[in-house]
Amino acid sequence: MGTMSDWTGSVRRFVAESLVELKKVNWLRPREAAVSTVVVIVLIAVFASYISLVDWGLAEMVKAALRIFGGRS
Length: 73
What we know:
By secondary structure, the protein is mostly helical. It has one domain. The protein is built from 2 helices and no strands. The model has no long low-confidence stretch (mean pLDDT 91).
């Protein structure tokens, strides 16, 4: 088992390497982040509407099939 100094040295090395990597990140500008957020929200709304419409349509088809073939409605 390692000693406490081995563990703290590993943590310090990890933090130092993480900071070096974070400096390499190409961060979005606030406007780009806001526009991207709006795009994501709009796409989620579009897909949710589509899935809801398909779900409603399939439910109506099942109800119609049950009426035609004598099932419960």
